[in-house]
Design goal:
Blueprint lengths: L5 E2 L12 E5 L3 H13 L4 E5 L3 H10 L4 E3 L3 H4 L7 E4 L6 H11 L5 E4 L5 H11 L6 E2 L1 E3 L20 E4 L7 H13 L3 E4 L2 H27 L7 H4 L2 H6 L7 H10 L1 H23 L3 H22 L8 H6 L1 E6 L6 E4 L5 H13 L1 E7 L5 H12 L3 E6 L2 E7 L11 E2 L4 H12 L4 E5 L10 H9 L4 E2 L8 E4 L8 E3 L5 H11 L6 E4 L7 H8 L4 E4 L2 E4 L9 E3 L4 H13 L4 E8 L6 H8 L3 E10 L2 E9 L20 H10 L3 E4 L12 H11 L3 E5 L2 E5 L6 E4 L4 H10 L7 E4 L11 H8 L3 E6 L1
Helix pairs in contact: 4-5, 7-11, 14-15, 14-19, 15-16, 16-18, 17-18, 20-22, 20-24, 22-23, 22-24
The protein binds shikimate-3-phosphate.
Shikimate-3-phosphate (S3P) binds next to α18.
C-alpha cells in the first residue's frame, strides 16, 4: 500500500489538559476509552451517553463513567473549552448524533469520532454545518475486536494501538492537539492521514477481509453439503473466520459508508480469485505455486514484523530496535562448522535462475536479508520461486524476456549487490522500475552503474549525487559498449555484463584488477558464452540461459570471522567446511598466511563450477605486515575482520589501495578506526586505508554503524580483549549471516544478545 500515514507533529507547547470527556455510545470502543481515561486519571470527569438505560447503568456500575444519561442536552450547559465529545456510534449513526451536538454545544467544545470510515462522516459534517467547523476532528482508533458491548470495555484496548486522525485544513491546531493528547493519554500512537487515503487503505486491509469472512461463513453455513462444517472445522477455518463474529450492523454500515473503496477492493480480489480458479481448473501448478509462495512470503514477513509487538506496530519500529551484543573477554575457538551459503553466488543464482528457461534447483542458498531481497524482487516481477526451505530454492525461470512489471518499487534493503546487479537486468526490460533501499543503501554511490548504463542507452534517474532511489526507465534500446572500469568492482562488472545480454552488439568490460568472477562462471553454467581475455570480459546478446542445478558453497566472507577468531585466540583450532575458495575470493587466506597464520586446505573439489575446500586454522602468533595491494580486491569484504587480526598482531599492519572500503555498507575504514581506538588500539586511518599498531585490546563499547561485518568483527575481537566488548546496532548481521550468534556460541565465543528499544 503506497499510502503513508504520518505521525502527528508534536507541538512545542505542553500537553493540552483535558477537562471533561463526554463519550456518546458506550459500546466496546466508547466504553474502552471511558475505562482507559478513568483508570489513568487522564481527565477530570468522564460522562457517558447511551440510548439504552441499561447501558448507562452498567457503565456506572462498572465505574468507567462518572455520570451518564441518554441525552447530551443534560450536560450541554456545563461543557466548554478543554472538553471533548467523542462519538462512538456506528458510522451511519454519526450524522444524527452530530445534529444533536450541533444544537446543544458551543464552538469551544471539541468533537471527535471513532467511525471506521471517514469520507462519509466528513460529508455529513459539511452537510450539517455548511462548511467544515474548526472544532470537529475526525479520527479512527484501529483497535476493534470481535467482542462488542459495554461489558467488553477494556482499559488497555488502545495501548500500543494506532489512532489515525484525519484532520481537515479547517481544523484548529489546538483542537487536533487536544484530541491527539486524549488518545496518547490512553497509550495509543497517534498518526495523521488524509481522509480519502484512510478510506482506501482501510477498504483494502480491513473492510475487504470482513466482507470475505462474513460471506465465506454465510456460504458454508447455508450449503447443505457442509451441514457439519462447524463440527469438523479445524484451526484454519476458525482463524480465518474469527472476524465474522464482529458486530453485524456496525460492519453493514461500514460497507455502505465506504462503498466506493470496498467495491474496488472486492473487484480486485474477485479478478484474482477467478484467475486462481482457472489455474486450479487447468491444473496449472506453476501459477498456483506462484500465488501461494508469494502469499506465504508476504504473510511470513508480516508475522516477523508482528513478533514482539502489538499488531499495529510497523517495520520501521523494528528497525529502530537496537540489537546489542555483549561479548565476554577471552577464550578459544574450537570445532568443525559450516557457515551459510555464499552471498554473492546466492544473489546470482536467483537472478540467472529467473532469467533462464526451465526450472533451476538451488541448494545452500543464503537465507540472509540481502539475498532474500533479491529473491523477493524477482517474485515481485512475476517469477515463481519455491522456498527457501533449509537452503533449497526452486526457481521457475521465465526466460530473458519473461519478467513482468512489478506493482511498486523494488525494495533492496541493505543490499548493494541486489541494487547494482538488478539495475543491469532492468535496463534491458520493456518496463520502468524503481529501486529503493534502507538508510545505509540510500547513501551509497549508484552512478558507478548508472553512468555506464546511460552510455549503453539506458535512461536512469537517481537522487542527488547518484544516490538511490534509482529509476530505470525500461524500454530503451541498449547498445553494447566497451567499459574501462575506474574501480575494481565485481558489482559494476556484473551489472554491465547482465545489461549486455540485452544490448545490440558486444559488451566488454576491463577491470583494473581481478574481481570476483561468479557472474561469468554462472553465466557459463547456464550455457551462456562469456569470453575473457586478460582483464577484459565480453558477452554478446542473442543467447539464452538454460536452467541448471546450483550447489552454493559456504561463504568465505562469513568463514573469515571464525578464521580470524582462531587466528587471534591462543589454543584455537577450527575447521570450516565446504567453503568456496574461488581464486578471486581468497585474499583473506593469503593475507592471514602472510601474517603467520597456520592454515591448511583439504578436501579440495569443484562444486557446480566453483572450487570448494575445508579450511583449518590452528592458532599461531600473528605479525604485522604491509598488505599487498593486489590482494585488496580479493579480500575486499574481509578487511573489518582482518583489521582485528592486525590489532592482535605483533608490529604494524599497513593497508593501502582500499579506498573502496569507504563506500561499503558504512565507511569501513572510519568505523574500524573508531572502534579499535575505543578498544585501546592505536591506529591511523588514511584516505585509502589504515595503519594499525598491534597491541592489547581492552574492553569497551563500539558502534557497528549498522554494518553487519563491522558488528561481527568486533564480536570476535573480544577473544583477545581484557574486558567485555559491547557491540551496538547488530541487527544487520542477519543480512549476510543469520545464524552467526549460534555458530559463535557453538565454537566457544561467550556472547549475549540484548534488544534495546
Ligand atoms: C560483491 C562485490 C563487492 C563486495 C560485495 C559483493 C558482489 O562489491 O564488496 O559484498 O557480489 O559482486 P564491489 O563490486 O562494490 O567491490
Amino acid at each position: 500500500m503506497s499510502k503513508q500515514s504520518n505521525p502527528i507533529e508534536q507541538t512545542s507547547s505542553p500537553t493540552p489538559l483535558l477537562n471533561k470527556v463526554v463519550i456518546v455510545g458506550l459500546g466496546l470502543i466508547g466504553g474502552s476509552l471511558a475505562a482507559a481515561l478513568k483508570q489513568r486519571g487522564a481527565c477530570n470527569e468522564v460522562i457517558g451517553i447511551a440510548r439504552r438505560k441499561e447501558t448507562t447503568l452498567t457503565a456506572l456500575k462498572m465505574g468507567i463513567v462518572d455520570r451518564a444519561s441518554a441525552d447530551i442536552a443534560d450536560f450541554a450547559g456545563e461543557l466548554g473549552a478543554g472538553d471533548v465529545v467523542f462519538i462512538a456510534v456506528p458510522t451511519l449513526t454519526v450524522a444524527s448524533v452530530l445534529k444533536d451536538l450541533k444544537a446543544a454545544l458551543g464552538r469551544d467544545v471539541v468533537i471527535t469520532d471513532g467511525a471506521s470510515v471517514k469520507g462519509s462522516v466528513r460529508d455529513d459534517v459539511i452537510k450539517l454545518y455548511g462548511e467544515f467547523p474548526e472544532q470537529v476532528v475526525l479520527g479512527h482508533p484501529i483497535a476493534g475486536s470481535e467482542q462488542s458491548g459495554v461489558e467488553a470495555s477494556n482499559p488497555d484496548l488502545y495501548v500500543n494501538h494506532r489512532v489515525i486522525l484525519t484532520p481537515m485544513p479547517e481544523n484548529s491546531v489546538a483542537a487536533v492537539a487536544l484530541v491527539g493528547a486524549m488518545w496518547e493519554q490512553v497509550g495509543a500512537e497517534v498518526l495523521a492521514m488524509d481522509v480519502d487515503d484512510h478510506d482506501l487503505v482501510l477498504g483494502a486491509t480491513s473492510h475487504l477481509p470482513h466482507v470475505i469472512a462474513f460471506s465465506l461463513v454465510d456460504t458454508l453455513a447455508h450449503d447443505s453439503h457442509n451441514q457439519n462444517i462447524f463440527r469438523y472445522a479445524a484451526g484454519g477455518f476458525r482463524d480465518f473466520t474469527r472476524i465474522a463474529s464482529s458486530d453485524a450492523i456496525m460492519w453493514r454500515d461500514i460497507m455502505l459508508a465506504n462503498k466506493k473503496s470496498v467495491l474496488e477492493a472486492i473487484d480486485l480480489f474477485s479478478t484474482n480469485l477467478a484467475r486462481l480458479r482457472t489455474a486450479i481448473a487447468e491444473e496449472d501448478a506453476t501459477t498456483i505455486t506462484g500465488v501461494f509462495t508469494r502469499a506465504k512470503a508476504a504473510r511470513d514477513r508480516f508475522t516477523k514484523m508482528l513478533m514482539n509487538q502489538a499488531y499495529v506496530k510497523t517495520m520501521q519500529d523494528n528497525q529502530e530496535k537496537h540489537i546489542v551484543y555483549t561479548v565476554a573477554p577471552g577464550g578459544t575457538v574450537k570445532g568443525n562448522i559450516r557457515v551459510p551459503g555464499d552471498k554473492s553466488i546466492s544473489h546470482r543464482s536467483i537472478m540467472l535462475g529467473s532469467l533462464a528457461e526451465g526450472v533451476t534447483k538451488i541448494e545452500g542458498f543464503l537465507e540472509g536479508e540481502d539475498a532474500l531481497a533479491t529473491l523477493q524482487a524477482f517474485r515481485d516481477m512475476g517469477v515463481v520461486i519455491e522456498g527457501p526451505e533449509h537452503g533449497s530454492v526452486t526457481v521457475n525461470g521465465v526466460g530473458l524476456h519473461g519478467l513482468e512489471k512489478p506493482s511498486g518499487a523494488l525494495y533492496m534493503g541493505n543490499s548493494g549487490t541486489s541494487m547494482r546487479l538488478l539495475s543491469g537486468i532492468l535496463a534491458g526490460q520493456k518496463f520502468a522500475t524503481e529501486l529503493t533501499g534502507d538508510v545505509s543503501l540510500s547513501k551509497r554511490p549508484m552512478n558507478r552503474v548508472a553512468n555506464p548504463l546511460r552510455e549503453m542507452g539506458a535512461v536512469v534517474d537517481t537522487a542527488e549525487q547518484g544516490r538511490p532511489p534509482l529509476l530505470i526507465n525500461g524500454g530503451s534500446k541498449l547498445k553494447g559498449i566497451h567499459y574501462d572500469m575506474p574501480m575494481a568492482s565485481a558489482q559494476v562488472k556484473s551489472c554491465l555484463l547482465l545489461a549486455g545480454l540485452y544490448a545490440e552488439g558486444e559488451t566488454s568490460v576491463t577491470e583494473p584488477a581481478p574481481t570476483r568472477d561468479h557472474t561469468e562462471r554462472m553465466l557459463r553454467g547456464f550455457g551462456y558464452d562469456v569470453n575473457r581475455e586478460g582483464n577484459t570480459i565480453r558477452v554478446k546478446p542473442g543467447g539464452k540461459l538454460t536452467a541448471t542445478n546450483i550447489d552454493i558453497p559456504a561463504d568465505i566472507s562469513s568463514a573469515t570471522f571464525f578464521l580470524v577468531a582462531a587466528a587471534i585466540a591462543p589454543g584455537s583450532d577450527i575447521t570450516l567446511t565446504h567453503v568456496g575458495i574461488n581464486p578471486t575470493r581468497i585474499g583473506v587466506i593469503n593475507i592471514l598466511r602472510l601474517m603467520g597464520a597456520n592454515i591448511t586446505l583439504s578436501n579440495e573439489r569443484e562444486v557446480g563450477g566453483e572450487p570448494v575446500a575445508d579450511i583449518r586454522l590452528q592458532y599461531a602468533p600473528l605479525k604485522g605486515i604491509q598488505i599487498p595491494e593486489d590482494q585488496v580486491p580479493l579480500a575486499i569484504d574481509e578487511f573489518p575482520a582482518l583489521l582485528v587480526a592486525a590489532a592482535c598482531a605483533e608490529g604494524t599492519t599497513v593497508l593501502t589501495g582500499a579506498e573502496e572500503l569507504r563506500v561499503k555498507e558504512t565507511d569501513r575504514i572510519q568505523a574500524m578506526a573508531d572502534g579499535l581506538k575505543n578498544l585501546g588500539i592505536q591506529c591511523e586511518p588514511t584516505e585509502d586505508g589504515i595503519v594499525v599498531h598491534g597491541g592489547q585490546l581492552t574492553g569497551g563499547s563500539v558502534e557497528s554503524c549498522h554494518d553487519h561485518r563491522i558488528a561481527m568483527s568486533f564480536t570476535i575481537a573480544a577473544l583477545r580483549a581484557t574486558g567485555p566488548v559491547v557491540v551496538n546496532n547488530c541487527a544487520n548481521v542477519s543480512t549476510s549471516f543469520p545464524n552467526f550468534v549460534d555458530l559463535a556460541k557453538e565454537v566457544g565465543i561467550n556472547l549475549e544478545v540484548n534488544i534495546v528499544n
